Amino acid sequence: MLCKDILTVEYFPIHSNLFSDEFMKDLSEILTIAREVGWGAASLLSSYYHGTAEEPNLDIKYKDNEPVTLADLAVSQYILTKLQAALGNEEFGYISEETYKSQHGQNSHEWVWIIDPLDGTRDFITKTGEYAIHIALVQGTRPVLAVVVIPETKKLYYATKGGGTFVESVNGSYPLKVTANKPIEDLTLVVSRSHRNEALEYLLQNLPCQNQKAIGSVGCKITAIVEQQADIYISLSGKSAPKDWDMAAPELILTEAGGKFTHFNGQPLEYNTGDINQWGGLLASNSQHHEILCQKAEQTLTKFASQDGDYTVKG
Ligand SMILES: Nc1ncnc2c1ncn2[C@@H]1O[C@H](COP(=O)(O)O)[C@@H](OP(=O)(O)O)[C@H]1O
Ligand SMILES: [Mg+2]
Q1: What pLDDT is recorded for position 180?
Q2: Residue 204 annotated as lining a ligand binding site
Q3: Are 313 and 203 in contact (CB under 8 A)?
Q4: For residue 60, is pLDDT > 70?
Q5: Which of 173, 251, 281, 315 is the most exposed place for a label (fewest CB within 10 A)?
Q6: The pLDDT of residue 3
């Protein structure tokens, strides 16, 4: 496992030309750092999950109705400290779920790390095992590098823009590609266990794919798709919305494996725009029937809105 201390890694400059050879070399060096940080973070998070941490008490508090534990805070600090020690603050900005304040708005750096130290905190607390660590590097508004770690399966997924998706475990590292050859009725859809609302329930009941299962954490849902245990993920905001750190890393892991991840209207997701919320309907798939499912989701929501005048994607 790659868990060696990265504090000694030398600082190296970033080049703004995304597809130059020099940049690709730098991106692969940055990926090595991000993977090491991912494994280290997984080991720390797992120690809280299994009660072997020095201070295993989770001290659960609630912020905007979402639980936050000492594990979220400790892992956030670990990831930020390690990345900043290796890469500095001059060329990179850092957004972590646990340090972000809504008044921060848009980070002015071209290169911004977007970090969710513990995605699926509710599942972490209720011990379903479905929780993940997300680390994404965004250039402008789009992800170029991603690491998603699932501590309970001891698997780390990584992707770079144009470089494909890989899964790493004690057995080594393998490329992952999704395949698509099922009729729409046979697709398996994964959805949140704990963030559901009336509009989402209505949508789920009216989609052509009725094989549906609840999984905690966006990272766990998306990796279920790249592992071909599921085909589609749908997210629909209500009074609150998922955030940039929930989506940025999982999105690149899926799209580099051949999947698609868009708003229901087909538009790509954007990150670090100044509004950290990912409002509206999002559909992730292994690419098959993506457009038709997006259309059906939009039509179904329009029908729902005509029956329930109160519904809007923000409220
Ligand atoms: N409607 C919503 N409002 C706020 N956060 C949401 C949300 N839907 C999903 N999320 C966030 O997305 C992550 C995965 O949720 P779920 O397991 O329900 O799919 C959680 O992140 P955190 O655990 O990092 O807070 C959760 O807070
Ligand atoms: Mg999250």
Answers
A1: 82
A2: no
A3: no
A4: yes
A5: 315
A6: 37
Q: Which residue has the least CA distance to atom 5 on ligand 1?
A: 242
| Backbone φ/ψ region at 133: left (φ over 0), alpha (ψ -120 to 50), beta | beta
Given this model, what pLDDT does residue 232 score?
98
Distance CA(244)–CA(269), nearest Å, equals 9
Element (H, E) at 108: none
CA-CA distance, 295 to 23, in Å (whole number)? 38
- Report the pLDDT value the prediction gives residue 307, as an integer from 0 to 100: 87
Residue nearest to atom 7 of ligand 1 (CA): 242
**DSSP 3-state assignment of 81?**
helix
Which residues of the chain does CATH 3.30.540.10 include?
A: 27-176
Record the tokens describing residue 70, joined without a space.
Answer: 């000492």
What class does CATH assign to 27-176? alpha beta
Q: What is the pLDDT of residue 22?
A: 64
pLDDT tens digit sequence for 175-222? 999 998 899 999 999 999 999 999 999 999 999 999 999 999 999 999
Tell me what the mean pLDDT of segment 252-257 comes to. 98
Q: Which residues of 280-305 are buried (b: 16+ CB within 10 A; e: fewer)?
A: bbbbbbbbbbbeebbebbbebbeebe
What stretch(es) of the chain map to CATH 3.40.190.80? 184-307
Can you name the CATH fold of 184-307?
A: D-Maltodextrin-Binding Protein; domain 2 (3.40.190)
Distance 139 CA to ligand 1 centre (A): 24
Average pLDDT over residues 283-299: 97
DSSP 91: S
Nearest protein CA to atom 24 of ligand 1, as residue: 119
The CA 297 to ligand 1 mean position distance, Å, reads: 20
Q: Is 98 in the pocket of ligand 1 (CB under 6 A)?
A: no
